């Protein structure tokens, strides 16, 4: 198995992981769980961006989707209500 | 019963859409995937991004993505900064009565262990952001990256320490001034060579980085032996400053206390 | 055996694309069918990020034995001749989708932050974040004012 096959296999595995995390995030009734699953999906996407040789995007996406979005949404659900 | 039929209809339409799109993509709808060779436009950009033998088109910066963002397609990035600015203005307008007020509740924050750990890591985050902004024209990095990384530090400090801690030390006027300084720097860098040309008597373009055919003015190509990147370095620094200050303003608005905002909204009856 | 060895990258690529399409479909369903405003915002961010990933997927290059890929950053700064640049062009990945996706991420971030602040404003005005109940309230007020 050459390096190219390994890269594409890792791409497919992280895409499937992100799909599972998305489905779990949509089905969760506790909004805190939904936020954590969406952060997990963002981590899978960061791995995909790294495998696709886009280092600028990894820097922005790791700070934005794993840092800013979950923290701001947690602040929001503290004020608005944690359960659906 | 009605909702079950609706859910079934939704699901079947979505599954049909996925199958159709997957079939279209796999038989060549988006082009041959994965692509066998680069597209001609990408070949042109990569060939001229750091090419001392081609002074007509080169940008003299070894990082292709930053050069495309701020040199080849600088106007796109200018308007995207305007969109970001508009969103922050919208947020501040919604809370225009309350975001200047001094908060009445004394807020405590979390325990002392978390506070000491956060103090150390916030300094580390800010130094990483400064480093990323400064080397954006040589290796992967740049203005937005540094601004987004630098926006995590005040957010964590707002949660761990209290909001009073930050708003007593860094008032909203100071943050607005930092943001406006960043935007002013962006605008001035864009027309810097035009101003110099006007003063000397030469012609120059707006957003000009290196010397072109019709105008001889150019930013320095090397500083202390390292490629300087021309306008890219200044654009990165000012953009990081503007983005980080804007984010901090939005987070402070989001955390104002409930008592303060209830005072303003209780009189509005007919908002529908 | 040789045929199957060439087919592995293409199969894995198709699996990735189908998984991303399923992501888009699930996020669209959540935006349309779930009544809570915070869940709609979460699904909107997932939708935007998946479309950005598609753009970067289309800028990759297929691996061939003997070919080495590199991100679009030139690493040789002092002695830049024609051969160095031609080798860089033959190895590098497309830089244009990455620049466009950077702009798209920042714009999505600005709009989502505004939506979050707007959701907080709506909670303070209506008392709830459930769009079904807000719709019923508005219908009640409108029928009150008309009839």
- SS-derived structural category of chain C: mainly alpha
Helix content of chain C: over 70%
CATH architecture descriptor name of chain C: Orthogonal Bundle
Distance between the termini of chain A: 47 Å
Low-confidence blocks of residues of chain A = none
In percent terms, what proportion of residues of chain A is strand?
Answer: under 5%
| Overall number of domains of chain A | 1
If you consult CATH, what is the topology of chain C?
Helix Hairpins
**What radius of gyration of chain C results from the CA coordinates?**
24 Å
Oligomer: heterotrimer
Largest interface: B-C, 65 and 55 residues
Beta strand count of chain C: 0
Number of helices of chain C: 5
Overall residue-averaged pLDDT value of chain C: 86
Q: What percent of residues of chain A adopt helix (DSSP H or I)? A: over 70%
The backbone outline of chain C, from C-alpha atoms, is: elongated
H/E series of chain A: HHH
How many individual domains of chain C? 1
Helix and strand pattern of chain C: HHHHH
SSE topology:
The complex is a heterotrimer of chains A (84), B (272) and C (147).
Chain A: H1 3-27, H2 31-51, H3 55-80
Chain B: H1 2-26, H2 40-48, H3 64-72, H4 74-94, H5 112-134, H6 143-160, H7 163-169, H8 172-190, H9 192-200, E1 222-223, E2 226-227, H10 231-254, H11 258-265
Antiparallel strand pairs in B: 1-2
Helix pairs in contact in B: 3-4, 4-10, 5-6, 5-10, 6-10, 8-10
Chain C: H1 2-33, H2 37-57, H3 82-91, H4 96-126, H5 131-146
Helix pairs in contact in C: 1-2, 2-4
Describe this structure in words.
The complex is a heterotrimer of chains A (84), B (272) and C (147). By secondary structure, chain A is mostly helical. Chain A has 3 helices and no strands. The mean pLDDT of chain A is 92. Chain B has 2 domains: 1-32; 73-264, no CATH class. Chain B has 11 helices and 2 strands; from the N terminus they run H-H-H-H-H-H-H-H-H-E-E-H-H. Chain B has a two-stranded antiparallel sheet with strand order 1-2. In chain B, a hairpin with a 2-residue loop joins strand 1 and strand 2. The longest helix of chain B is centred in the first third of the chain and has 25 residues, at 2-26. The radius of gyration of chain B is 25 Å and the shape is globular. Chain C is an all-alpha fold and 147 residues long. Chain C has one domain (2-59, 94-146): Helix Hairpins. Chain C contains 5 helices and no strands. Chain C has helices at 2-33, 37-57, 82-91, 96-126, 131-146. Chain C is elongated. Chains in contact: A-B, A-C, B-C.
């Amino acid at each position: 198995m050459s390096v190219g096959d390994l890269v594409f296999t890792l791409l497919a595995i992280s895409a499937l992981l992100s799909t599972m995390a998305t489905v779990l995030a949509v089905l969760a009734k506790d909004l805190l769980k939904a936020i954590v699953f969406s952060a997990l999906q963002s981590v899978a996407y960061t791995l995909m961006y790294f495998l696709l040789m886009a280092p600028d995007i990894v820097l922005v996406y790791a700070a934005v989707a794993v840092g800013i979005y979950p923290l701001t949404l947690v602040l929001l659900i503290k004020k608005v209500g944690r359960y659906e | 019963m009605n909702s079950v039929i609706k859910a079934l209809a939704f699901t079947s339409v979505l599954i049909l859409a996925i199958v159709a799109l997957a079939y279209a993509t796999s038989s060549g709808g988006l082009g041959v995937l994965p692509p066998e060779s680069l597209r001609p436009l990408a070949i042109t950009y990569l060939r001229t991004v750091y090419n001392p033998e081609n002074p007509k088109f080169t940008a003299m910066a070894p990082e292709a993505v930053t050069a495309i963002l701020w040199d080849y397609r600088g106007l796109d990035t200018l308007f995207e900064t305007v969109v970001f600015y508009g969103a922050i203005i919208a947020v501040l307008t919604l809370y225009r009565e309350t975001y200047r007020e001094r908060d009445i509740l004394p807020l405590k924050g979390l325990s002392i262990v978390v506070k000491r750990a956060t103090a150390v890591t916030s300094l580390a985050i800010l130094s990483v952001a400064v480093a990323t902004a400064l080397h954006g024209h040589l290796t992967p990095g740049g203005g937005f990256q540094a601004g987004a990384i630098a926006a995590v530090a005040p957010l964590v400090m707002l949660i761990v320490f209290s909001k009073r801690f930050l708003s007593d030390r860094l008032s909203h006027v100071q943050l607005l001034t930092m943001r406006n300084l960043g935007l002013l720097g962006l605008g001035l860098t864009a027309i810097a060579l035009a101003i110099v040309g006007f003063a000397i008597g030469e012609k120059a373009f707006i957003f000009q980085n290196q010397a072109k055919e019709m105008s001889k003015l150019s930013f320095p190509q090397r500083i202390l032996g390292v490629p300087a990147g021309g306008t890219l370095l200044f654009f990165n620094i000012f953009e990081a400053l503007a983005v980080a200050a804007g984010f901090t303003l939005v987070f402070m608005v989001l955390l104002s206390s409930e008592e303060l905002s209830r005072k303003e909204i209780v009189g509005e009856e007919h908002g529908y | 055996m040789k045929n199957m060895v060439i087919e592995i990258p293409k199969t894995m690529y198709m699996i990735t694309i189908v998984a991303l399409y399923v992501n888009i479909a699930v996020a669209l369903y959540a935006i349309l069918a779930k009544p809570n405003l915070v869940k709609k915002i979460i699904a909107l961010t997932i939708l935007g990020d998946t479309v950005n990933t598609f753009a970067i997927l289309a800028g990759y290059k297929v691996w061939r034995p003997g070919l080495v890929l590199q991100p679009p950053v030139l690493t040789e700064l002092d002695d830049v001749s024609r051969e160095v640049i031609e080798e860089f062009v033959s190895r590098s990945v497309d830089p244009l989708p990455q620049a466009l996706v950077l702009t798209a991420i920042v714009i999505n971030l600005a709009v989502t932050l505004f939506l979050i602040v707007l959701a907080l404003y709506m909670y303070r005005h209506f008392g709830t974040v459930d769009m079904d109940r807000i719709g019923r309230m508005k219908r009640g007020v409108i029928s009150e004012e008309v009839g």
